[in-house]
Amino acid sequence: DQAETVLMHLIQGTGAQGLQGIIPQWGSIIRPLLALSQEEIKGYLYNQSLPYRIDSSNFDKTYLRNRIRWELIPLLEEKFNPAIIDSLCQLAAVMKEENEYWDQQVKAAWRKIVVAPEPEGTTLKAKIEEILILPLALQRRLIHCMLRIAGCQRGSRHDVQRILDLMRGEGSNRRVPVSGGIWVGKSYDILEFGIDAHSRTDYCYPLEVPGVVEVVETGWSFTTRLLRDKLDASPESIYLDWERLQKPLYIRSRRPGDRFRPLGMSGSKKLKDFFIDAKVPLAERDKVPILASDNEIYWIVGHRLDERARVTDSTRWLLEINVTNNR
After folding, report:
1. Is 104 a domain residue?
2. Are strands 182-187 and 190-195 parallel, antiparallel or unpaired?
3. Which mean pLDDT values do the consecutive 10-residue runs of the chain (327 residues) have?
4. How many Å apart are CA 289 and CA 301, to the nearest integer?
5. Which pLDDT score, from 0 to 100, does residue 155 have?
6. If exposure means fewest CB atoms within 10 Å of the residue's CB, which of 5, 42, 231, 234 is most exposed?
């Protein structure tokens, strides 16, 4: 998997970040089998008499990864380097170390260039002069970092170059659009990142119980039912104490002044502050669905339940919500 990923990134076009391939740990996601070959995994399963399945789509050569696996890598092994997989994995490990060094350089430079992180209405402001005196490689990494924080998770090299040209160009009070509904503006010596006002979408859907609610603006679907017995609970669903919830319930977008009581906390917290602490990019915050009544918030979908909705030993009726993202 690691060798295939490095080759796939090379073919599609990448930088140093892409050459590190798959990261062994990314947040709460851990990949303990990343360093093992398919033969090692199959050997273990055989020795332990454990059954397994192979996804039939792994053989579908309409996918680039599969063409790399079944055509390109065998060709490279036969004609160029029998140990090409080991070489690519070694490259990924070296690039991971290189990127860790550059990440430290970004953090050190960040403190000097940022003017006002996370103000309402913009993601951040940075000093152009402080950026331009840095090595070009560091400039690019800083811009990538700012784009991610602003909500542009897949900023391209064209986005980065557009911002570099904006900073170096003459004139002020200019702005350019980049990926993800983000704009980047230049005001004298300040670089400002923000959200396109037209990209925000407000929505509010009544939550039917039992029933299915589809939020067309975000692609999320919510399937609900009531349960009497906790033994019927599914690990793929979220559960709330039905009798403690005010009705009617809605799935809606965030609103100014929203507050809730994060699970495990005794006091309330502004939703805006919660998003900042959770490092949710500004452009993504309007896309996060919220389960609420007219007066209370009970669940920040994908992030945190409200303390008042939690299931306890005295809970009699469970509200089960299964969430799927159709995008």
Report:
1. no
2. antiparallel
3. 94 88 83 91 96 89 92 97 96 95 94 69 79 96 88 80 93 81 86 68 86 84 87 76 94 92 90 88 80 94 93 91 80
4. 6
5. 76
6. 231
180: left (phi over 0), alpha (psi -120 to 50) or beta: left
* Cα(177)–Cα(196) distance, integer angstroms: 8
Quote the domain boundaries for residue 9: 2-97
Q: In this structure, are 242 and 316 located in the same domain?
A: yes
Which tokens belong to 215? Answer: 């939020």
Would strands 304-305 and 211-215 be described as parallel, antiparallel, or unpaired? unpaired
Please name the residues in contact with 177: beta carbons below 8 A apart, sequence gap of 6 or more.
183, 196
Residue type, 278: A
CATH of the domain at 7: 3.40.50.620
pTM over 0.90, yes/no: no
CB of 89 closer than 8 Å to CB of 75: no
Radius of gyration from C-alpha coordinates of the chain:
24
Pairing of strands 29-30, 269-270: unpaired
In a domain, 248, yes or no: yes
The secondary structure of 230-252 as a DSSP string is GGG--TTSEEEEGGGS-SS-EEE
Q: 158-193, pLDDT tens digit by residue?
A: 899 999 999 999 877 788 888 777 889 898 899 988
Whole-number Å distance between alpha carbons of 282 and 29: 23
CATH of the domain at 321: 3.50.40.10
Q: Specify whether 193 is located in the same domain as 208.
A: no
Query: What are the distances in angstroms from CA 112 to CA 100, 108, 115, 270?
Result: 20, 8, 8, 29
Helix (H) / strand (E) element for 165: namely helix 157-168
Residue 95, helix vs strand vs coil: helix
33: alpha, beta or left? (left if phi > 0; alpha if psi -120 to 50): alpha
